[in-house]
Design a protein that fits this description.
15 helices; about 450 residues; single chain; 8-stranded mixed beta sheet
Length: about 450
């Protein structure tokens, strides 16, 4: 999306990349954000708090371009790729003159190291053509946190020196096999097998940092099934834990190239998600002609106080913030999400001037779904409702004719799950932001 300098406050609140251009259309800076609108606003509000270099940057901005991504992880990989390719002026002259961080995998070594390096380190390090280097990453804290999280699904070592003793991480399952222990072993078949296993882990890490985590998950599933078939149940259980850890991190595919292929590519992905969602609804026995508009309801409260409800709208897969609505809960001031869903649904349906959706998504389980359906029945409205239970990301549907629930737990790579997660997460973000605002106002009054 393109924005003029005076329209920065209309930028989406989703995660993604922002790019600043000057009046001659030269790229000045690329940044990533979990919340684009909030991050960009920091450049234009309270400018006296900015560093001198940043104030110079802001004075040159003429146009803002954004690319929305599925997640913050997507944004990090995309930021790295764009900076590497486009070399913006103010990314090279980075904050406090500290060069950005890179991740280096020394694949030329028998037991590769995983290292954090900066640009000036390349002069002293012997980097081989066989090595893999990822970056630059503008946020060192984020990439370090990311690698720590990845160790739960891909054990690898961050220890620089190899002293023949297994590192501490080995004893808690985050580094297995440990290259430090392997390094001091006598040549044997066992040593060769461990070297091969460790190199396999490093190449798996390389795949994920290259944006291919979905294919890594598929390989893990195949590996787990082979172990299970051969009755190697402990090994199968270990791989299953790796899959679960990867699923926690990787609930969406991370492919930075997807966002670099233009709006048409994004639209194609949204169409794929909507087609997949239509098939899911057909599985539930729903035959909807088109899934043009989807609305999601979410509740946010702290022990019932300052409770808020949010209604977010997705049209053809795209979030439409101009049609979002927020509700301050009036009738219930104790923790009761079911009653609060009823109130929000009733107040939403009372607005007959708002376009009706083809589907409601409720953030919650059976109680919340039944509460929403009861209000719909009161209004003699047959719009279908599905629930997305957060714990296992299970899709729930209630059959009005048989008065029974049907549940489906979709693969994390399923396009329709991506769609419903994105809609649910946006509703949760919008509801929570309003709840925090009301809570802060209450604290100030107190």
């Amino acid at each position: 999306m393109e924005y003029t300098i005076d329209r920065w406050n209309t930028i989406s609140s989703g995660s993604g990349i922002y790019q600043y251009f000057d009046s001659e259309n030269k790229l000045l800076y690329i940044g990533k954000a979990k919340n684009l609108k909030k991050r960009v606003s920091q450049y234009f509000i309270d400018t006296h708090q900015l560093s001198e270099k940043t104030r110079i940057l802001v004075s040159q901005i003429f146009r803002i371009s954004t690319i929305e991504t599925e997640s913050e992880f997507d944004a990090v990989l995309l930021e790295s790729e764009l900076i590497r390719k486009k070399q913006p002026k103010y990314n090279i002259l980075s904050k406090d003159d500290k060069s950005p961080l890179y991740v280096l995998l020394t694949l030329h070594e028998e037991l590769p190291h995983v290292m954090y390096v900066r640009k000036h380190d390349s002069d002293t390090l012997k980097i081989s053509k066989r090595d893999a280097i990822f970056g630059p990453f503008q946020s060192g804290r984020f990439i370090r946190s990311l690698l720590r999280s990845l160790r739960y699904s891909i054990p690898f070592c961050l220890q620089k020196k190899r002293n023949g003793k297994a590192c501490f991480s080995y004893h808690i399952g985050l580094c297995a096999p440990c290259p430090s222990e392997i390094f001091d072993m006598k040549n044997s078949e066992s040593k060769i097998e461990r070297i091969r296993a460790y190199r396999k882990n490093i190449y798996t890490l390389k795949k994920i940092l290259s944006g291919h985590s979905v294919s890594v998950r598929k390989e893990y599933v195949k590996e787990m099934n082979v172990y299970s078939k051969n009755m190697q149940y402990e090994e199968a259980l270990t791989v299953r834990r790796h899959i679960e850890a990867l699923d926690t991190l990787n609930q969406r595919s991370f492919d930075p190239s997807m966002y670099m292929e233009g709006d048409q590519k994004i639209d194609d992905i949204f169409h794929l998600e909507l087609d997949s969602a239509m098939k899911l609804l057909t599985f539930f026995g729903l035959h909807i002609q088109a899934l043009h508009r989807i609305e999601c309801i979410d509740i946010s409260n702290t022990q019932g106080s300052n409770a808020t409800g949010a209604l977010t709208v997705s049209i053809d897969g795209h979030a439409v913030p101009s049609e979002y609505r927020k509700f301050r809960i009036r009738l219930k001031q104790s923790p009761d999400d079911v009653s609060m869903i009823s109130e929000v649904m009733k107040r939403r349906l009372a607005h007959t001037e708002w376009n009706y959706p083809q589907l409601f998504v409720i953030d919650g389980g059976k109680g919340q779904i039944l509460a929403a359906l009861k209000i719909l029945d009161e209004y003699k409205n047959e719009i279908p409702v599905i629930g997305l239970a957060k714990r296992l990301e299970t899709i729930l549907y209630y059959h009005r004719d048989t008065k029974s629930f049907q549940s489906v737990r979709l693969s994390y790579s399923n396009p329709s799950l991506h769609l419903f997660q994105r809609i649910r997460d946006e509703a949760h973000r919008f509801s929570k932001s309003y709840h925090i605002l009301l809570r802060s106002r209450g604290m100030k009054l107190a």
